[in-house]
Amino acid sequence: MRFCRTAITAALFVASVSAFSFSGSNGRNVAPAFTTTSRVSSLGMTSTLSDSEVVTEAEDAFTPMRPPIDLPWDKVTSQLVDAFGYSPEEVSAYSDALDNDKEALLKLYKALEMARGFENACNQQYMQGKIRGFMHLDNGQESIPGLVDYAIKNGDKKYSYYREHTHAIASGVDPGAVMAELFMKEGGTCKGAGGSMHIFDKETYFQGGWALVAEQLPYAGGAAKSILLDRALGISDDENIEKQNVAPPADDDRISIVFCGEGGSQNGRMAELLNSAAKDNLPLLMLVIDNGRAINTFTPDIATNSNVYEQGKHYGVPGLLVDGLNAGDVAKAGKAVIDYVRSGKGPAILQVHTYRFNGHSPADPEHERGRKEEKMWARAEQDPIKKFEATYIEKGVFTAEELKAARKEVLAEVKASVKFADESPMPPESLAKELEYPDAVDTDYNLKTPPAFADEVNARTISPEQMATITTHIEALQEKARAGDISIGDAINLAIHEEMLRDPTTTIHAEDLQAGSSYDIPKLTQQTYGQIRAADEIIDEGHFIGKALGEGMNGYRPIVELMNTNFGIYGMAELSSAGNTFATTGGQFDMPMTIIGAGGTAPNQALGAEHSQPFHAYVMGIPGLKIGTAASPDAAYGLTKSMIRDNGPCFLFAPVKMMKESKGTVDLGKCMPLNKASLLHEASQQTVDRGHAVTVLTYLHGVKESLASIEAIQEEGFDIDLIELRSLKPLDMDTIATSLARTNKLCILDESTKSGGVGATISARVSEELFDLLDAPVKRLCMDDAPVPYASSMEKAVVKRGEDLVQGVFDLCTGEY
């Protein structure tokens, strides 16, 4: 099909501008090959393209790769009856409620026009360079924001993906704030920190805007779980969206809704979400926007079954397919599905068959098979706004003049949003650093007060028998701590119980949770606090880290126990987003999540490569994440308590081979700082004066190796300042500097690889910031870049140990660099 230059230029500049021409009395949309099409931009610019300018081969009928679906209302009714248990009369009532309410229909029409007009304005501003980066427009899919406007409430939790502008506005987010966010202005929803793909608004519970495909699925599951937690604990959000000791109303019918494309729904996260949503009977709607394109690729080319609404059958989750061309049907049927979820019957899937009028983003070349032709055809034949106009004018509900007036009103609001964005100031440069962490790095967590409602919530959710059992358990652990006989695993377990009783909004997720996992970290949590607060999880860390993120955004303090921290590799996307959330949302959403697990690589560990990865080094590059290590029960206890109280994401690594063997005392009731290292051994002044002292930095198993090596080092006439890096990020440069001012030599016994490891980061910072304190090059004793072998004979060549430290100190003190 050949398109003239005029049509191509118009398509590129206006992208998917609605043709505001009403159909004839027969209600059919007419293809542009046989009409003169008036294309009106969101700011009122009009260009008229004749039939010969649009398509030069009118005689050739275009056959789309993905044909429209034949889904009249009677077929929608049959689905609602068969899959959702509605009676025909109940379905008819949903239809009548909208079709007989002119005001509701007009509101729906305005929502459609707002979505179209706003996206057209976005496209124009993008072409003018006022919107930067990636932008993804929603033209052609207006029936979805129409449904949101019609049936979704303010208190519902909304999780969308990167094509979310219209979902946010339909949820009640101010269009001016959305446009200002796209303009990277301080008046934006996230103060310009998020951009087009990250729209968040705390007041309307619009919780993203997530850029990694399908990552939002488990987050929405966690948000749905937070609704159940509110009901179970008898707490709710106050006017500042902070938890208060007031139960949700008896008719609380909040739900969580997650938007996902049919391409993204092929992601394994969908199956995991269906499983957990069905298992926990979550109030969750999975709204699948089926435009037939995974980015620009034709979805059937890569997916065997695009009928996502049927995916839930295996889990007992009903689904409904509707035609996005008919916004009225989507609103009526969608509300029936939403009410099913609201009634407490469990999760559901709503799949909306639609067509996207634009490419994936304005920056994409759209070379995929059939995409450009499909767009032109869809704009003419599958426009939900044209369909709405034709349907309700033919029925006599509206006149053309009424709808034109409504559209004019909406476009004025769109124009005002652009003006607001234009006039908003840019955010200050200093804001970037202010948004790094919710809590300052030097926070004293001992001064944080618990919720005033803690005792009351505990009394109504923990039985006297459960309280007696856990009190006895805690007292036994505290006695061990006083006697110096508590292990690292038990110390963490003690801290967790103390904090879960101190703050009932604290929850925990783990595999093998009921059994205490591998090191007793979650022992007796489910037996004490129930499944609602202590959840046994499927074997996919990404899934339950994601659910924890959703809880954290909704007033809870989730703990995630990983058993082995290397399993967190499954959750890298979720960990990354947890670190970014506070900043990306412009500081609206704290992210109080604590991740704990055993990890690291001990000499002679004999666990092989996959269980011996330096995951602590992998996550150090994630912004917004505080990372700590604990090689003793005291450190494990104090850091755990602080991390649970912190309002941002924290990750505690404990040494996998020392979880039960390392015993010691604990400073009970005390939180440790999250930004400080600990001087475990100080070199004698005599060795310092002779230049025979070295600063040694280490962590995890390196602490045990170093402590065991001190005697051998001293026998050679040398000594060390041994510093345990209890905070890998932020790094305690002050403690390092104080020691280097004495020794002027630095050795790092590092439990990560030579390339990209912890030691590499520390060495670089010391060289940049403390170079004048060095009398010798930094000595790095790090793991080789080779995978860690199972056989001890080979492993010795990869993993450094105490004997390497002794040699390293000798080399530094004798000049053998």
Structure report:
With 817 residues, the protein is of the alpha/beta class. It has 3 domains: 82-424, Thiamin diphosphate (ThDP)-binding fold, Pyr/PP domains (Rossmann fold, 3-Layer(aba) Sandwich), CATH 3.40.50; 445-664, Rossmann fold, CATH 3.40.50; 678-814, Rossmann fold, CATH 3.40.50. It contains 29 helices and 27 strands. The strands form 8 sheets. Strands 16-15-17-18-20-19-25 form a 7-stranded mixed β-sheet, sandwiched between helices. It has a 5-stranded parallel β-sheet with strand order 3-8-9-13-12, sandwiched between helices. A hairpin with a 4-residue loop joins strand 4 and strand 5 (206-207). The longest helix has 26 residues, at 102-127. The chain is elongated, with a radius of gyration of 30 Å. The chain starts with a helix and ends with a helix. Mean pLDDT is 91; it is low at 1-59. Its cofactor is thiamine diphosphate. Residues 486-661 form the Transketolase-like pyrimidine-binding domain.
